[in-house]
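Hi R.,

Here's the chain you asked about this morning:
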Amino acid sequence: MRLLAAALIACCPVAVTAADVYGPRLEGFDYPYPVKTFALESQRQPLEMAYLDVAPARSPIGTVVLLHGKNFCAATWQETIKPLLDAGYRVIAPDQIGFCRSSKPAGYQYSFGQLAANTHALLEQLGVQRAHIVGHSMGGMLAARYALLYPQATQSLSLVNPIGLEDWKALGVPWRSVDAWYSNELKTTFDSIKKYQLDVYYSGDWQPSFEHWARMQAGMYAGAGKEAVAWSQALTSDMVFNQPVVYELKNIRVPTTLYIGQKDRTAIGRDQAPPALKAKLGNYPLLGKAAAAAIPGAQLVEFADLGHSPQVQDPARFNAALLRSLEANR
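And here is the predicted structure, written out as tokens:
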């Protein structure tokens, strides 16, 4: 009987791969560089903000701060960090409060102003007075807010497929409660993440390089801390939906470059939008041009064949464009 069972196992392909399982603060997932922790007091509670702080081999020519998106972490910048180090930049990549390796408080008034203030406090603690701020997706919304609040500390601003370039609520996307966001988040699996990213981020083109990061996100939902992760994501979805930056782009007064993958169609809440509206949302070829026109002196870099995450989909091309922009603004 044992021999028969062994033979069946050997000859039959495994249909399902065991899911990666991580803790609520992404315990068990390996980051590409050592993770450090910044202890802060915020909204009457002690919190911990995880971050990477990596120095180049020689004296730094500047500091680059990398801000992750909502479905991403500091680790997702892995393929960008090394080229920046090789070019001579010090690189700091935090996990925002509520995300990844950082604290996930059950009660927190999330706002981009608050996350920007937390980031600024971290940089002050590290002795960084001025930095190049790079933000992807939701991190682009945060980066824009940071530049608006701390222009003197922002050497340049790089926005990588930022969301919030349109006001979804004003356009007619239905509002939903935090409880509704939470209920939806509890349904998150690797398969649902992959389907969403395949449809919205990459226009049906899934590549092996996306797998690792999708499993990173899914692993937090597969673990014992699923409820804490889902609640944080619900609270931050409410923040993203209700705090668009599009109206204030005209007020940005630092050198800015937008990097826009043209196949991206990200729009928060589009799943509940009426069909006619859904078809118009997240039109990044138009949104990128409009944002570049709104920000005084902004430069626009378009990637015709890329989607929501150019730094993941084609690191070499994205990194080359980013380094050119940083060099121009040294």
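One quick note: Residues 29-173+243-328 form a domain with the Rossmann fold fold (CATH 3.40.50.1820).

Cheers,
M.
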